[in-house]
């Protein structure tokens, strides 16, 4: 059981050329559990995840993860998972290389992770030959195998059928219960409603709202959040609230 690390963004700015993509973003994601990042296309959700994972560097502002006392193990599941041309099992094992495990421990973890996403039977198949949805499950297996303190996911179920989506949602709940802090980008507000403890709404590179899921989805306070959520509402149980 790990302790979910807090994630704090303070006046974060990210630019590409002259364009400001993230514009003085402030957010304090301090509660454990699952936090959803929502907002319209181009709002800056994926860039924010990459900034949190240190894959991008802000032009200014600060990002603090954890309390500074202990190393925070992170894992990222991208919207389009990148697999190397090797077996599914090898792709999962890659995520475990710097954990100091024995070969036997590593193999056991790989097998357990593959079983959790129902891909054990495909362990020896080339990862690049798996379907898009299978690769997405494999990416989650790779991420979970390292038992991360912080798990960042960008639309992890976008290509999955409903049964596979349910499996993934169950695994995310389980990880959060075990103490992993989960940050999830999703346009599926039904999923956000099912999974998230709190919701951070981004619009034009800024955080326009952050609160408990029920409150944000049923009674958003900002005009931007209201406009976005209203359009997505037919998929949720909140339609009647508007
Ligand atoms: N390297 C880059 N070069 C140019 N523009 C970029 C770059 N990275 C991101 N952007 C732009 O920044 C904006 C925010 O991108 P981001 O991918 O974070 O949006 P998003 O909220 O995740 O959107 P979506 O819901 O469509 O996935 C977009 O307009 C995107 O085109």
Automatic annotation (TrEMBL):
ABC transporter domain: residues covered: 7-229
PROSITE patterns from the UniProt entry: ABC_TRANSPORTER_1, ABC_TRANSPORTER_2
Superkingdom per UniProt: Bacteria
An MF annotation (GO) of this entry: ATP binding
Keywords: ATP-binding, Nucleotide-binding
PANTHER family: ABC TRANSPORTER I FAMILY MEMBER 10 (PTHR43514:SF4)
Family the UniProt entry places it in: Belongs to the ABC transporter superfamily.
Name of the protein: Phosphate import ATP-binding protein PstB 2
Record gene name: pstB2
């Amino acid at each position: 059981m790990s302790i979910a690390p807090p994630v704090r963004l303070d006046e974060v700015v990210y630019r590409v050329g002259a364009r400001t993509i993230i514009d003085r973003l402030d957010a304090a994601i301090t509660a454990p559990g699952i936090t959803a990042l929502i907002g319209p296309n181009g709002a800056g959700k994926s860039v924010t995840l990459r900034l949190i994972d240190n894959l991008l560097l802000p032009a200014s502002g600060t990002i603090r993860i954890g309390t500074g006392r202990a190393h925070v193990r992170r894992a990222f599941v991208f919207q389009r998972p990148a697999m190397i041309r090797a077996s599914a099992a090898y792709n999962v094992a890659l995520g475990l290389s710097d954990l100091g495990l024995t070969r036997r421990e590593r193999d056991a973890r790989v097998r357990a992770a593959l079983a959790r996403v129902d891909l054990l039977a495909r362990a020896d198949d080339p990862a690049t030959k798996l379907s898009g949805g299978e690769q997405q499950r494999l990416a989650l297996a790779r991420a979970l195998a390292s038992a991360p303190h912080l798990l960042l996911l960008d639309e992890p179920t976008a290509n999955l059928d409903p049964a596979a989506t349910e499996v993934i949602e169950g695994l995310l709940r389980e990880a959060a219960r075990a103490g992993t802090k989960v940050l999830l980008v999703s346009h599926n507000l039904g999923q956000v409603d099912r999974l998230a403890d709190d919701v951070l709404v981004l619009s034009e590179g800024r955080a326009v709202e952050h609160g408990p899921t029920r409150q944000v989805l049923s009674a958003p306070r900002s005009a931007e959040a209201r406009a976005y959520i209203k359009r997505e509402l037919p998929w949720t149980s909140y339609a009647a609230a508007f």
